[in-house]
Fold this sequence. Notes:
Blueprint: H1 2-16, E1 26-28, E2 46-47, E3 51-55, E4 60-62, E5 65-66, H2 80-85, E6 90-91, E7 98-101, H3 102-106, E8 114-118, E9 124-130, E10 135-148, E11 154-157, E12 164-168, E13 174-177, E14 191-197, E15 202-208, E16 214-222, E17 225-226, E18 230-234, H4 236-248
Parallel strand pairs: 1-4, 5-6
Antiparallel strand pairs: 2-9, 3-15, 7-14, 8-10, 9-10, 10-15, 11-14, 12-13, 12-16, 16-17, 16-18
Amino acid sequence: xxxxxxxxxxxxxxxxxxxxxxxxxxxxxxxxxxxxxxxxxxxxxxxxxxxxxxxxxxxxxxxxxxxxxxxxxxxxxxxxxxxxxxxxxxxxxxxxxxxxxxxxxxxxxxxxxxxxxxxxxxxxxxxxxxxxxxxxxxxxxxxxxxxxxxxxxxxxxxxxxxxxxxxxxxxxxxxxxxxxxxxxxxxxxxxxxxxxxxxxxxxxxxxxxxxxxxxxxxxxxxxxxxxxxxxxxxxxxxxxxxxxxxxxx
Length: 249
């Protein structure tokens, strides 16, 4: 009787687990893809965004990144052969669909209008183009899914720091952390290019894994929208490097 009761409770817990819009989306990429952990500030001279897809909800989406936010990057020491080999990993369309005042866009990007689902236990490749040689890099990353749950079309800035990962530090305070020094600096311009996310449309992007370290409570923030808390491993050296980069500015 006890065995039956335990089985019933287990099944009840499983059935009560919250389902999300991201659960039935499969991100497709070659299963034999060899990936590495991104070093701090390693992507300083690399091209390619972290955005995989935006648009209607599809059950199967290829892991392929938008190469440019706006104008194409400056090509450095490009060889046609190497550049052609990168085509399968990047979308050639630019993200920009217009330009408007930053404040007008950002004030709509909150948890009333956006739902964020983080799949921190899933591993997908984040592709980057090493602009010096046009060689492909493949980093271990996890996907973040965002859905427009409002009835209005939202404008998403494409050239600002649009997403942060926050963790709880030793003082139990939320602190932001990224794996790149230059991303801390941001932009002071008031007008920003944007792309549109219509009602019920989704946005998917990749967040590179940190080197392993202490386990922290974390959440992803997209402007004023926030995900639920999850656990993540972060090397203390990354936090130290980012702090030193901040005080040097």
